[in-house]
Amino acid sequence: MAGFLCILRLAATKNLPPGLFGKQSDRFPWRFSVGAFSSTAELQGTPEEDAARSVSAVSRPSGRRVKLPKRIVRSPTDILDALASTVGKDATGPHYRYVDDPFFIPTNATNRRIFALSKESGRKAARYMVKKYPALFEKPKADPEISAFLAASQLGSQRPTEPTVKDIVDCMRKGALVAAFEAYTELNEKTPEAITPELRQELLERLCFHNSDDAIDSDLLEEKWFAHYIQKEVRRRWKVGGPADKVFQDIKPKTAEAYAAMICANARFLHVEGANTLLEEMQQENLPIPVQVYNEMIKIVPLLKDSIDSRWEMTMSFLSSMNQAGVAPNLQTFNAVLEVISRIAMWRRSRSTALGVFAEMKRCGIEPSLASYHFLLQIFCRERGPISHILLDVLQALEGKELTLRDPKDSNFFPTAMDVAGRHLRDVAVARKVYDLLWTNNNSLFLTDALKDTVFHGNFLKVLVAGESVENFFKVYDELVPMTLVPDSNLLLEMVKMVEFHEEPQHLPRIWSDAVVFGLALKDNMLEPFLAVLLNNHREDLKEAFAAIALDVKTRIDAQFLDRANRIPWSGPVISSVVRLLLRNGQMEPAWEVVGNYINKKTETFGFPSEEALSELVDVLVAAEQPTRVKQCVTLASDLGFMDLVRSAEDLAKRLRLPEQEIQKWKRIGSGSVAASLGNI
Amino acid sequence: MVPLSRIVAKNLSQAVSTAGKPRSVRPFTNSAKERNDDPVEFRTLNLNPDRKERKRFEERKNVQHDLLPPRAKRMHVDQQWTNVWPAAASFKATAVPLPVRMGKNLNKKAPLDKYGNAELMKIPNFLHLTPTHINIQCAAIKKFCTPWPKELATDADCHRHFPVQIITSDYCHSGQSIRDSKARVVSFKVPLSDLNLDEHARDKFLRLIGNRYDPKTGVVTLISDRCPTRKQNYDYVCYLITALYFESQKVEPWEHEKTVADFEKYRWEGSPSQIATTKLVRKMVESGRFDMGQQESSSAEAADAREGEGAGKGGAPPSEEDMKRFRVVQQYRSAVSELINVGEDHRTVDKYKDSSRSFFFFSSFAVMPRGRPATKKATATAATAAGDATETEAVGSQNGSAEGQAENVVTSNKAKSVDVPEAKEDQQTKETAAKPPAKRGAAAAAKKEEEKASQESDSSKKINGSGSQPKKKVATNGDVTDTMKAVAATTNAKPEAAPATTTAKPEAAPATTTAKPEAAAEKEKKAPKEKAPKKDVLEGERRVLPPRAAKTGQK
């Protein structure tokens, strides 16, 4: 669909000669662009130029001056940004990575991941095709040319036969580090003098940063979002003797920058010994150590030393050597120190030391980042430690500030803060404050992956469940579920408890339907307690709804595929609850079906129905005058050893007005069974 | 081998079944199942009898998914709709909390509801353009807007201050290329009247641009699409208008060689007709019987042009420019031009007839003085001219020094009815014309008359000098009648000038009334001496104007 936009401009032109439109040249406005009309940049020159030009005109007939205001300078995307800022959060809509259609909105955590990653894998498949058949993607069709559409933009797609310095630079800067290193090795053998020291250093730094791998494609957003799930298995370790090490060996003489890059990379990829050795070498050669090296070394202190005191000692030694060398600490230094303290569990002095670090930070004029507060919270609010209200102070310090990402660990702050508010302080008001802080400005960007997102919102709802009224809770619940968060069965159970506690069972059917949609309804830990709660409520107006739930349970369990690996079997309590709930609403047939299936062993079952359920069913069956079924039930009762029921068999037969011969048979039902003998004893 | 046998079996069975024959041929099989199924067929060869019969894939039943209820049902009443529908999108039934229906139901039921309704998805919707959306978005981009210049309140102002219009079009495509060749077209529009062109240049300009000028709107439109980019086309258009402008200003040496035969139209100027007319008028003026002060067209411009010229009546011969201003000459000119340019039809011929008549009528004073017929003609002329609102024909040649028959005044009916002050002035003028015969014997007051006349002329000067009515030249020789007529012409020429004239009147009027008898008497004295035969005319005129005379008498 191609629309078109017609822009009509009332404009006078700069290229026209004076005197064309009037006798005096100043009668004509050479340049004119009126607010809304001026939008074609092509004819207008740069915005600065426009802004600088104060435009005015004299009208010809009357001689009144037209004073034109200066154009307000704006970037090409300013209007779009302004319009985008008007769009807030759509509580009921899915994230834009999903399709807004009930069939395509994922309703549980697994589906969320699958849907998003499937989309991404489509993208990856396209990439694969481009890489495999680059010849098909060489002709530029786009105008202006979009390099990302061309095969040449793919990482390492070109393998030049005669590598040049330019090839190395191109590959390297595109992130194709493997290809870059190949080209480098070849060139280094032939003409090592062609490679400048700067190029070597850049290559080394890039190899170090990416651990000699190709750079991670920044376009694969979904993989990033679900990184916690994907990358759990692949723990990235430093490639000892890999390309980075080789390039480092080629650098002669070794420079401080080369050392720095290597030490940082070794430390970051947890090659602790390597980092330590290189640092010692560096110190021996009397090279200046930059602040980044100190930062990375402090971060790995817990890996180098075991005991609390030695860890702190080592940290202090790094800091004092920094001081001696005159290297000024930066934000990362302080964050590293705080991280070390937070890793020293149960250190007596940890709190005071952390506060000391904060004071030092202030003295150095460094604004703490969210990561600093994150470590502070970890230090102060330990699980088994005394309760600390430091979060309130932190929130106060953050109030009204424009937060920016200054440290990779900044993203940990919000989950930690919500965790502290929920589990440490158990304070709804504080949790709401943290939540509000997340949704001011663009702070929600600090939740950088799915795990953090889930933890944050899950904790928030858990606090609310514990401390809010039912009405207020469901208000927030509606906003967050299911688009932002899919609750787990624990949360649902807590909701059930809350509803029970506040005696508002009218919300139970709704919780059930959510549980069904989220695929949690038939889970062991969910089903039995939920049905038990239903059974405990005797509200007349709700019995129909509860019976519907019971029927739903029955249909769902029976409708499972036989070959399904993780199919959910009937259990004794579930049978009892379902039967009783159905009977309460007078639905005898389905109730009998459940018990009948159990008796005839048509369904896989663990456990057995309770006596109350059976006797209730028998009563109803008797009332409905169904002697065959009653007899089956009594037989079952005798098998299960429910002697009260067995003993009443005669009465039942009489109530059913059976012939005398039958009554005698019924009397003998329980006598032969083990239960009967046990009962007699 | 096993897969091979299976493939063979499959293909064979397919081939056989598609041929529509009974399944008489089947590959060998040992499998019990197949044997049982169809005892007729051959057993298939199973080379690996130990292999378990692979369980066939069981097709699952269509699973009923547990779907979320339509999200519209979860929406709060106080939600912000702009967040739900921020931009244009095709209709989504689950996201719109409205019971919309569309399309025709063949069973004569209500139109189909929104779920899965393709009709609703086809049409464009405006769910992204609610008043709230517009308010919010306008507020968001308001910071980029500057106030509208106050001087450009109306469209007319805009066109006045910025006559040039440049129109370009931008095109958006959802394709790989953002280019569109149509975007290069630039059109440039300017009203011709805003180009500062004289007659020659205008003519040349119009010849140069050909059909790019729209005579209805008066706008010149230049469109360029010959260059590949918009910038180039824009520059080209600017170049074109500049070149055209200066080219049209040029006068080539050979342009003077243009002869009458080369004219694309008949031009009265320079034609034998004009020469003849000029000669005629000049003769009349020289003979002193054709006063320019009276013969000017009544338009304001003419009045302006006449102002301060001080050309005395009858004195210097009028230039050609002056002559063009004579109403009769103008009429004649347009009639002749039209007759030749448009062609001969009833209208043009009639017009020519009328204008020629009127021309000859007033020239008849000089050549063939006659009473009644001439008067009739004059009235007829006045009647034809009555269509023109501003017209007042003060026809009559008089000159204080020469002829005594200055009383011949014909005023158009229209002018009289429209403008009261003017009518009064006319009356006064008529007074002068009417009274003299009654006072013919009063020659004794000649000296006094002269004094008063000079007095009067002074006061007239004052009027003309001080008032905002600088329209008419002042009769410097103290001819009262002349002055009065000048005032009359002024009021006729400019209706809006009436107040000024009326304010001037109190001063002028008494002087006039007192002066009139003497002046008229003086004329009357002279008149019989020199041109007695014209009495008839005077009488005729008097008959034309009895009511005025009566009124004046009452005064």
Keyword list:
heterodimer, A: 681 residues, mainly alpha, two-stranded antiparallel sheet, 34 helices, 56% helix, elongated, B: 555 residues, Double Stranded RNA Binding Domain, 4-stranded antiparallel beta sheet, 4 strands, 4% strand
Q: How much β-strand is present in the residues of chain A?
A: under 5%
Strand segment tally of chain B = 4
Bulk shape of chain B: elongated
Q: Number of helical segments of chain A?
A: 34
The number of helical elements of chain B comes to 22
Order the strands across the largest sheet of chain B as they lie in space: 1-2-4-3
Overall average pLDDT of chain B:
65
Offer a quick outline of the entry:
The complex is a heterodimer of chains A (681) and B (555). Chain A has 681 residues and is mainly α.
Structural commentary:
- By secondary structure, chain A is mainly alpha-helical.
- Chain A has a domain at 2-62.
- Chain A has 34 helices and 5 strands.
- In chain A, the strands form 2 sheets. Chain A has a two-stranded antiparallel sheet with strand order 2-3. In chain A, strands 4-5 form a two-stranded parallel sheet.
- In chain A, a hairpin with a 6-residue loop joins strand 2 and strand 3.
- The longest helix of chain A has 24 residues, at 109-132.
- Mean pLDDT of chain A is 83; it is low at 1-60.
- Chain B has 555 residues and is mainly alpha-helical.
- Among the domains of chain B are: 71-145, no CATH class; 151-253, Double Stranded RNA Binding Domain (2-Layer Sandwich); 263-290 and 319-362, no CATH class.
- Chain B is 49% helix and 4% strand.
- Chain B has 22 helices and 4 strands.
- Chain B has a 4-stranded antiparallel beta sheet.
- In chain B, a hairpin with a 4-residue loop joins strand 3 and strand 4 (219-224).
- Chain B starts with a helix and ends with a helix.
- Strand 1 (4-10) of chain A pairs antiparallel with strand 1 (165-171) of chain B.
- Chain B: Residues 293-302, 378-394, 434-445, 488-518 have a biased composition (Low complexity).
- Chain B: InterPro entries: Ribosomal_mS35_mit (IPR019349), Ribosomal_mS35_mt (IPR039848).
- Chain B: GO terms for molecular function: structural constituent of ribosome.
- Chain B: Residues 395-415 have a biased composition (Polar residues).
- Chain B: This is 28S ribosomal protein S35, mitochondrial.
- Chain A: One of its GO terms (molecular function) is rRNA binding.
